[in-house]
Amino acid sequence: MEGAELEPAQDVAAPNAPVRHTGRGCDVMSRFMDVHHGMTGITADQLKQAHQADLDIEKDEGVHFEKAWADPESGTIYCLSEAPSAEAVQRVHERAGHPADEVHAVPLAV
Amino acid sequence: MEGAELEPAQDVAAPNAPVRHTGRGCDVMSRFMDVHHGMTGITADQLKQAHQADLDIEKDEGVHFEKAWADPESGTIYCLSEAPSAEAVQRVHERAGHPADEVHAVPLAV
């Protein structure tokens, strides 16, 4: 039976928390889920362009946006990222023109 | 430069929408993100047990819970699944003892 194995990110302070060497030294990375509201009717192309706008500048903040999912009906978008902080995630989104409404660290994952 | 490729699930009605053969015939599958609130202080073990409780019964509804992420500080949990409907996702969560507060179809993904 397919069991639920914990991801390595189960404890931010754990010794095996991923570390990324950035221009600013060494950041302990965490996973974040951020949420955008008010994007009713977003299209596949618009999602792709918004995601690309993040990818283009993310390295400046030591962030990597792994995935994004969108519900055009409710206008809700979820973005999963690995980053040194929630603030770094929001700075990338703001510079790309689409600040998040919520940013949550998600240290636990299965 | 790492481009943003669209996932096959970009259009629920698209001909390449995944189809799952279930005991009830043939369901066109979609991806869903559901959200649970009020789980402040959830531990890694509790998340693992909750996810396992879903995995144990999901096949009854033709659902598959792919991933779950948790923020113990805000008590927010995000679950990504593939399912024939939002109702099927909620039925599994209810039977497992943890109904979702929101369930969104996320037909677009990058």
- Supply Rg of chain A: 15 Å
Q: Overall mean pLDDT score of chain A?
A: 86
**Order of helical and strand elements of chain A:** EEEHEEHEE
> If strands are numbered along the chain, what order do they take across the biggest sheet of chain A?
4-5-3-6
Looking at this structure, what is the CATH superfamily of chain A? ORF SCO4226, nickel-binding ferredoxin-like monomer
Helix content of chain A: 10-25%
Region (Disordered) (chains A, B): 1-21
InterPro entries (chains A, B): SCO4226, SCO4226-like
Protein name (chains A, B): Gualylate cyclase
Pfam families (chains A, B): SCO4226-like (PF14026)
How would you summarize the topology of this molecule?
The structure is a homodimer of 110-residue chains.
Chain A: E1 19-22, E2 25-28, E3 30-36, H1 44-57, E4 64-71, E5 76-83, H2 86-95, E6 102-105, E7 108-109
Antiparallel strand pairs in A: 1-2, 3-5, 3-6, 4-5
Describe the protein.
The structure is a homodimer of 110-residue chains. The first copy, chain A, has helices at 44-57, 86-95; strands spanning 19-22, 25-28, 30-36, 64-71, 76-83, 102-105, 108-109. The first copy, chain A, is α+β, with helices and mostly antiparallel strands and 110 residues long. In chain A, a hairpin with a 2-residue loop joins strand 1 (19-22) and strand 2 (25-28). Chain A is built from two helices and seven strands. The two termini of chain A are 15 Å apart. The first copy, chain A, has a four-stranded antiparallel sheet. In chain A, strands 1-2 form a two-stranded antiparallel sheet. The first copy, chain A, has a single domain (29-105), classed as ORF SCO4226, nickel-binding ferredoxin-like monomer (Alpha-Beta Plaits, 2-Layer Sandwich), CATH 3.30.70. Residues 9-16 of chain A have low confidence and may be disordered. Chain A is 22% helix and 34% strand. Chains A and B meet through helix 1, strand 4, strand 5 and strand 7 of A and helix 1, strand 4, strand 5 and strand 7 of B. Strand 4 of chain A pairs antiparallel with strand 7 (108-109) of chain B, so a sheet runs across the interface.
